[in-house]
Amino acid sequence: MRSDLPNDMQQLLDDIDHFIDTEIAPLQAENDNERFFDHRREWARTDFEAGGLPRPEWHELLSEMRRRADKAGFLRRDLPTEVGGTDASNFEMAVVREHLAHRGLGLHNDLQDESSIIGNFPSFHLVWKFGTGDQRSEFAEALITGERFLGFGLTEPDHGSDATWMETTAVRSGGDWIINGAKRWNTGMHIATHDLVFARTSGEPGQARGITAFLVPVDTPGLSVDLFRWTLNMPTDHADVSLRDVRVPDSAILGEEGRGLEIAQNFVHENRIRQAASSLGAAQYCIDEAVSFARDRVTFGQPLAARQAIQWPLVELHTDGAMLRELIRVTARDLDTRSHMEVSDRVSMCNYRANRLVCDAADRAMQVHGGMGYSRHLPFEHIYRHHRRYRITEGAEEIQIRKVAGHLFGFTGKKK
């Protein structure tokens, strides 16, 4: 599905493949690193006796992959030229994310950690776009190299998609702020140096204005990581966090006071289109593997591929993928040239449909492969367990469908 791509984009994909084949695949094959990707993957990655957190040696392997990718000039493509990037467009990143996921499981693009040879740095972009000069100096390069890591504290025990109703508060105390509240699914807290905590500083529950984002060092007194929630796909990095009289200076605010929700929305918008592309790539991988197996597998004297019960479901999935690919790429191009809010409904279309597609494709690939498809010796169960989360996180699909409906029926957007 590359015939419609510009020559420079096709060359980039060829360069990516060459780098993976010559640098990353051999690293994956060293020292039984395959244990992180074959049937042992969940157990090799997870320290079940330490709360289900990722094993240090798993993180070390990912770090080595990123170091090699950075040296080769791939890791920072998405970043500004000021820090060694190429200011890659949303269109380029959508194409790349699909391509990497389409290659299947591997160190080049790990689904679970969203760790790739072409880095995904949402926290960097938030600091770069909304941060002060001092915040950029402290965090920008450090977030790339791993010396700094930001947790993301938006969701709460009683509030998920309804973030405007969050109960975490921050009140002024002299020149400081005192934060009280609780966060759930606070991602990345096992390695975070700081937590990006969203708290209401003014306004009323349900109002978008009045929520502020704070960069809180994790060793600040009163901040407590209470529990890491075990999930369908392990290891976990999703914490329950308590904030009890956490004191931070005014300089900890990221962006404008009271406009923190804009930061959260910025985080999910570009992430959603890229994640949709990744889901599409993983879905196409599942479809292609099922088709290949059906051609080779002979039952009752005929290949599975000769049976309509096998053909038709895969044709439906393949068709959905082809249509979704066009929508994702057009939407990504528009994100590069238009206001995010102008295309937010199409971003939601791409995201919820792609996340459904990959779950359906993984499920169908399991079915076509029979008992082996259900086993951990093939990657489909891992793909399903990972991508199933995206039908909930970063805006549940019901929320995204509601957004599309708002534009369709004129409740929001230009028709309002």
The helicity comes to 40-55%
Could you tell me the strand content as a percent range? 15-25%
Average predicted local confidence, pLDDT? 93
Shape: globular
Q: What is the H level of CATH, i.e. the homologous superfamily of the largest domain?
A: Butyryl-CoA Dehydrogenase, subunit A, domain 3
CATH topology description of the largest domain: Butyryl-CoA Dehydrogenase, subunit A, domain 3
Low-confidence stretches: none
Helix/strand structural class: alpha+beta
Write the CATH architecture name of the largest domain. Answer: Up-down Bundle
What is the CATH first-level class name of the largest domain?
A: Mainly Alpha
Distance between the termini: 38 Å
Number of domains: 3
Q: What letter string, H or E per element, gives the SSE order?
A: HHEEHHEEHHEEEEEEEEHEEHHHHH
Total strands: 14
Multimerization status:
single chain
| Largest beta-sheet details | 4 strands, mixed
Number of helices: 12
Give Rg in angstroms.
Answer: 22 Å
Going across the biggest sheet, name each strand in turn. Answer: 5-8-9-12
What layout of secondary structure does this protein have?
Layout: H1 7-29, H2 41-45, E1 46-47, E2 53-54, H3 56-71, H4 90-102, E3 109-110, E4 115-116, H5 122-130, H6 133-145, E5 150-153, E6 169-173, E7 176-187, E8 194-200, E9 211-217, E10 223-228, E11 238-249, E12 253-254, H7 260-296, E13 298-299, E14 302-303, H8 308-337, H9 344-369, H10 371-374, H11 380-387, H12 397-408
Parallel strand pairs: 5-8
Antiparallel strand pairs: 1-2, 3-4, 6-7, 7-11, 8-9, 9-12, 10-11, 13-14
Helix pairs in contact: 4-7, 4-8, 5-6, 5-7, 7-8, 7-9, 8-9, 9-11, 9-12
